[in-house]
Amino acid sequence: MRKLLLAAFLLFAGTAVFAQQSVSVKGTVTDKSNQPLPGATVQCLTVPGGTATDVNGKFTLNNLPASNQLKLRVTYTGYTSVERIVDASAGGIDTLKIVLSNTDALSLTEVIVTASTGSGNRLTSSLSTSSLKSADLEKAAPRTTAEIFRSIPGVRSEATGGEGNANITVRGVPLSSGGSKYLQLQEDGLPVLQFGDIAFATADIFLRADQTLSRIEAVRGGSASTMATNSPAGIINFISKTGATEGGTVATTVGLDYQNFRTDFNYGAPIGNGLSFNIGGFYRQGQGPRTAGFLANNGGQIKANLTKQFNGGYVRVYFKLLDDRAAAYMPMPVQVTGSNDNPTYTSLPTFNINHGALQTPYILQTQGLGPNGGPYTSQVSDGMHPLSKTIGSEIQFDLGDRWTLDNRNRAAFNSGEFIAPFPASVGSTSAMLNQIGTATGRVLTGATVTNAVTGQAYTGSQAMIIHMFDAKLNNFNNFINDFKLRKDFDKAKLTFGYYKSSQNINMDWLFNSYLTSLDGESAVPLNITTAGGTSLSNNGQYAYGAPVWGNLHRNYNVNYDISAPYAGINLDLSSKLKFDGSLRYDMGRVRGNYSGNVQRSYDVNNDGTISANEQSVSAINFSDAKPVNYNYKYLSFSAGLNYLIDPSNAVFARYSSGGTAQADRILFTSSIFANGGAATAYNRIDQGELGWKLKYDKGGLFLTGFYAHTKEAGEFEVTTQRIIQNSYRAFGVELEGVTNVSSNFDVRYSATFTHARIVDGQYKGNKPRRQADLIYNIVPTYKAGALSFGASVLGTTASFTQDVNQLKLPAYVYVNPFFNYRFGKKWSASLNANNVFNAMGFTEAEEAAITGGQSNIVRARSITGRTISTTVMFNF
């Protein structure tokens, strides 16, 4: 931390070294009807950097060279980009006006920043990319960050776990474990975590969207294999505002039919001498969209950056503090009748699957033996609790002779907790007692069950065995540096880079077991007493551990040190044909250890007596720690051609091969040898793309055919207690488009059709679990003066719950309407609903099959039912 702060100070103190005669260019960006375009990107191509227009369409570019050949580029989503040469040799310009035409509805002329080896736009590059601005996010009515990703073509986001714990992938690449193994989440061009699928610490847990967000860029396949590490399927990059143009926002959002209160703010401005800043964040409180029974969502974040513009480049330092608590939603019990091929899912009488939760106000704490071998207590209300303190910098300079330097680095100090109730088993009360008796070695014939809150006999016919997932995220610190040098020639661009990262994974698994009633709101803990009068429970907790699963107290303590040189080339083979190619060589050094479980008797509650549930208590067996000691290396490459048929029409082709290293999920499996070596340390994806892009007066179209072959090593999945190892092949078509039906009405749409199969192993020939043939999104929007309204319609066809291909998850569609009204230039109000028709839909399920012709209980994660919110926003 001290070294980073010292470096930042020295960089800013060196202003005089870089100072030359400089000027400012000020102006306004409007559409053809003279309406301002807030958020338009304005760049001077002569020097690195840029700015964005404020709410009145105004912009300022500082520290530009006093030249008669300043080349400006202005881009705005849905409008054709404009490049203009201006003469600033006699001094600054204060009244420049740039008018954009909305003939590029799909933003095909927008310049690509993420995972790009050059400075081409979407039309002239051989990449599949998308960009989302703040207005696009509002239309999706997201309740969590991961719900935003559903608006990106080709992306499959199972965003049903709350504010984090989502499963995210692209184009038929499998979801064989939780998180985003093959797709990387970035913030300002660097990964949030180096691995996206860490158990109980997925990357989206440490990422939030708020008013500091300028835009989201997404790259699917292509150079994502070579321009970043562990991201062969794609990259989603959150790009922050930088304050180059003065302006701010304060917004308050209130849940109208659920408990949520949130305030966002952002302000940025130039402050003279080439300096500008931006600061913002959010804070929220509430139970959330499900009936947790307590304050489940509580916290926020603050982000700030400071930029110094020089003549020929800029230096930026930034900071983020994230301290947020949010409920984690696990699969929940739902009634399923019919057959495996044609099932009917309905809520149980005591559990509303659209709004219910496994959390309960009657179990607010969980106890057991902690990593130090002594008693500990955790607060269930902490839920997913990321604590992230981040400091980083960006440096970009024109070195002369057409060389450009670009360096980004970040140190993130990450820790926290993941605590959530998981239904290990659901069924009749007697069946639950039988499972507990078998797992604990006790005879529970004739045992009685009582309500732990009232002390009365429990008369309910059904109950749940709850495993309280409690993962202490001790140390997930990472340090990342990405260094690039670019050289421009008349018809070529060369990129040379060196990437370095260090990622810690240090966590403890401390699981405990409860018996509760089957309720989706205020489930009560149930105490068990044997026929002989021996009490086995305390507030429903019958075990300090998870005996039904063989007990899972664990410690992971591993460091992943990664180095990756890379290079890229862009060639103009002709005025219409462009080639780009890139290589990356990843080298990993993995060192650490992991420890499993040991059982012992211990007086956990310190009452002086070893109770029945204290006779076999789980603890982490640090005395039998196993080593982790292996290295790995692999080569990734990507190459593509783009042919510009005419200024509005292009085709492209690309082939890529990349890898992603495995992390914690191969520990405790046969993939790790006794000496700490690894059988297979990474997975590979080979991908092909063939696409067509069209820009026309009334809209745009982006059509891509794709192929992906994924080869995986075995990895452990905690919820199913299985080792999953398969290879997969997928073909498909991805569509993204927009049609401007009139000057007031437009329709945006995307769809992805995927034909995916498992190609080896036990389930060869089957569809990968949870992989639908078709996912789609349609967003019609109507604008009438200050009023705009529309809806986001999202849908999916049916899929299978597991690779065995028996029980199906039904198709579903849900609708998110939105209304927005502007009261002048400063005030606006919006109303939106998520799942307004309260549709029922499921993204995953634990059970592979049901028994036809009878009522079954399946544990499944469902989309949240209807939630309505309103937002009041003030722009200044």
Automatic annotation (TrEMBL):
The keyword Signal applies. It is a multi-pass membrane protein. Residues 125-235 form the TonB-dependent receptor plug domain. Residues 1-19 form the signal peptide. Pfam families: CarbopepD_reg_2, Plug, TonB_dep_Rec_b-barrel. SUPFAM superfamilies: Carboxypeptidase regulatory domain-like, Porins. Residues 367-836 form the TonB-dependent receptor-like beta-barrel domain. Keywords: Cell outer membrane, Ion transport, Iron, Iron transport, Membrane, Receptor, Signal, TonB box, Transmembrane, Transmembrane beta strand, Transport. GO terms for molecular function: siderophore uptake transmembrane transporter activity. It is found in: Cell outer membrane. Belongs to the TonB-dependent receptor family. This is Outer membrane receptor protein involved in Fe transport. It comes from Mucilaginibacter auburnensis.
